[in-house]
């Protein structure tokens, strides 16, 4: 009987899904989440394959300010450049800036959040730094720093990351504060494990679920910030981005006379932000196992 009971217990444990498996199953059952992931993957593929989709928009053309047609899907601008090509190449720069700025912001926020939670002597000064950074007027400071540093893709990445890490740090710190008092962390400390080992083995795996949500949201916010700064003329003038397209349309006066020059890059920004938001919501619901019957 003991062997039978042990066998039944083993089968039960085998059938019991792991938290990661439950999260994946919950996410997979959410059509909005899966569809949004497909949209983000498609945008990433467009950014990677931009040279194969459309030629780089440069120079002048003879078809000036034409509305969308079979020859020019998104129409042309005031100098005859194809708006479809601008949006395709703008996808590359916008997503690159968003991903790079998000990665840097998450790295800074993750480091400071974990350090503040584990080293209690640093919690107060780092907590004050995080709260102070969150209270700053972000957009005016972004404009000021970007204007002083000069327009370039590198400047955009650094400026956006500089003002995006506090939100990540606050979320990571709150999650890590709940992990530090747990018994297995205390046991590791009593057994002589170093602070670096405890952080790598226990704190980082524990905060990764909230970091996963922050990744997608931070990318979408970074893309929005890049679009705003580029629209104000603080982007790289030698490259195309969605905000740069809007800026050039505004300079040429096409905002009122040629609606297609602003509609399609605006739709691209909207699509990415909505898709990223839906992915984060679906992932968070699946991680918390909401909606299960």
CATH H-level superfamily title = MetI-like
- Structure summary, number of beta strands: 0
What is the level-2 CATH architecture name? Answer: Orthogonal Bundle
Give the strand content: under 5%
- Note the main sheet: none
Q: Uncertain runs with pLDDT below 50, 5 residues or more?
A: none
Order of helices and strands: HHHHHHHHHHHHHH
Average pLDDT over all residues? 82
- CATH fold label: MetI-like fold
User: What CATH first level would be assigned?
Assistant: Mainly Alpha
Summarize the structure in words:
Helix content is 76%, strand content 0%. The chain has 293 residues and is mainly alpha-helical. The protein starts with a helix and ends in a 6-residue tail after the last helix. The protein has one domain (49-57, 72-287): MetI-like (MetI-like fold, Orthogonal Bundle), CATH 1.10.3720.10.
How is the secondary structure organized here?
Layout: H1 2-15, H2 19-28, H3 31-48, H4 50-53, H5 83-118, H6 120-135, H7 138-149, H8 153-162, H9 165-179, H10 183-190, H11 195-231, H12 242-252, H13 254-257, H14 260-287
Main traits of this protein?
293 residues; mainly alpha; MetI-like fold; 14 helices; 76% helix; 0% strand; elongated; cell membrane; transmembrane helix
Give the gist of this structure.
With 293 residues, the protein is mainly alpha-helical. It contains 14 helices and no strands.
